[in-house]
């Protein structure tokens, strides 16, 4: 973002509740380790965010958002519907 001079492009970090290590690190101003990952998306969670993620947040504003598991499910459903519509729009029409 910095290298491309995209200073006006917003970045939103989305984490599920129970796995918000980036949000916790932003609040603390340093990396912190969560006691556990407590979410349905456990394979996507990290107990500790890397230093590079915080370094990026210092260079470019990043908004951290936490979503519930229901919110995550709706987002995935929406993405699936959007992909289906995109594929239908790209399908050649006959006749």
Automatic annotation (TrEMBL):
Q: What is its EC number?
A: 4.3.1.17
Regarding protein family, the annotation reads: Belongs to the serine/threonine dehydratase family.
**PANTHER family, per the entry:** CATABOLIC L-SERINE_THREONINE DEHYDRATASE (PTHR48078:SF2), THREONINE DEHYDRATASE, MITOCHONDRIAL-RELATED (PTHR48078)
- The leader peptide range reads none
Catalyzed reactions: L-serine = pyruvate + NH4(+)
- Which domain of life does the protein's organism represent? Bacteria
**Naturally occurring in which organism (per UniProt):** Zymobacter palmae
Q: What is this protein called?
A: L-serine ammonia-lyase
Q: What keywords does the record list, in alphabetical order?
A: Lyase, Pyridoxal phosphate
Task: Enumerate the InterPro entries for this protein.
Answer: Ser/Thr_Dehydratase (IPR050147), TrpB-like_PALP_sf (IPR036052)
UniProt GO BP: isoleucine biosynthetic process; L-serine catabolic process; L-threonine catabolic process
Q: Name one GO molecular function term.
A: threonine deaminase activity
Give the main EC class.
lyase
Required co-factors: pyridoxal 5'-phosphate
């Amino acid at each position: 973002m910095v290298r491309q001079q995209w200073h006006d492009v917003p970045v939103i970090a989305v984490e599920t509740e129970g796995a918000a290590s980036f949000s916790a690190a932003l609040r603390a101003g340093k990396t912190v380790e969560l006691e556990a990952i407590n979410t349905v998306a456990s394979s996507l969670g990290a107990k500790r965010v890397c230093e590079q993620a915080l370094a990026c947040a210092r260079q470019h504003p990043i908004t951290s958002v936490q979503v519930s598991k229901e919110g995550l499910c709706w987002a995935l459903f929406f993405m699936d519907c959007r992909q289906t519509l995109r594929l239908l729009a790209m399908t050649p029409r006959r006749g």
